Amino acid sequence: MSTEQPTMTDPRPDALEVGTTATKAVKARARIPWRFLGSRALFYLFTLWAAITINFILPRMMKGDAVDAYLARNRNISPEAADALRALLGLDTDRSLFQQYLDYWSHLLRGDLGVSLLHGLRPVTEVIAGALPWTVGLVGFATIVSFTIGTLGGAFIGWRRGSRLDVMIPITTFLSTIPYFWLGLLAIAVFSVNLKWFPIGKAYGVGMKPEWSAEFISQVIHHGTLPALTIVIASLGGWMLGMRNMMLTVLDEDYITVAQAKGMPDRKVLWGYAARNAVLPQIQSFALSLGFIVGGTIVMEMVFSYPGIGKLLLDATNGKDYALMQGVFLVITISVLIANILADVAYAFLDPRTRQTEA
After folding, report:
1. With contact defined as beta carbons under 8 Å apart, do 259 and 271 qualify?
2. Shared domain check, 108 and 151
3. Under 8 Å between Cβ of 242 and 156
4. Cβ atoms within 10 Å, residue 227
5. Nearest residue to 182 (alpha-carbon basis) of 241, 153, 174, 342
6. 227, 105: one domain
7. Is residue 141 part of a domain?
8. pLDDT above 90 covers what percent of the chain?
């Protein structure tokens, strides 16, 4: 039997290089999943088109229109001015619905979302741009804090299952079931009215002008602390419960038993193996929750009189300001779609099995 070994100049390939499953897996993992990315892109493009089309149709199915509501509040408007307003808002009855739809897409591609009747015919983009930072700053910060605390706490509670720490799960879950408006009113009654630690509402003090100064920033932080805390308390239970349940599932896996049998430190097993795999569904949920940040918490903004997107949408609905409603809905839709895309990419990156299955 020949025992000849391949040399550096031997043209014959090494069997270990071409024949092992591990090598094939590495090569397959290195390829860019064009089919997966293409299918996702087509799906989200169709979803975006459907959302924009529904956003165009729904206001036109409602009784009356924005101009009728505006004329009811301002009776000194001439018929000619009313017709000009309808043409400006894309509600001209002389044009068919399909022509209005094409005009809507034409304005949309130019970044023109129309004008807001409730805000003195200001462009909708300016109105939304003024309210968006307040919602993203407050709700975004509170969401990140609640996700971090809930995920880390849930992982540790799951690791120490059966200990006294388990009592945290029913407590945080109970706080999450309290209606948000009641939780907000209770926080205002205790910390604002009785203890006087925080202001009752608004985003900054009366008489202050928004500017980049230490005094204004301190006012914003002071006014935003209480609503941020209520958001964290209301959402903490879901993150903690979800992470704890995933930890219980992962801890029963064979690789955790093997890692512990090899004598690995508990800290490495907890964070390097168990929590790393249990956090995958949490990351996808977190990415989706980031999309809904733009929608804000309407009830929170009502209770604390906070000038965010949620309150803006409520005012636009009550005032039948359809252009502003469409603009807010469009921003929320795009943010949710972007969050879904980020969730798909993050999940496929962290768990290649998902990418390979869908491709």
Report:
1. no
2. no
3. no
4. 26
5. 174
6. no
7. yes
8. 6
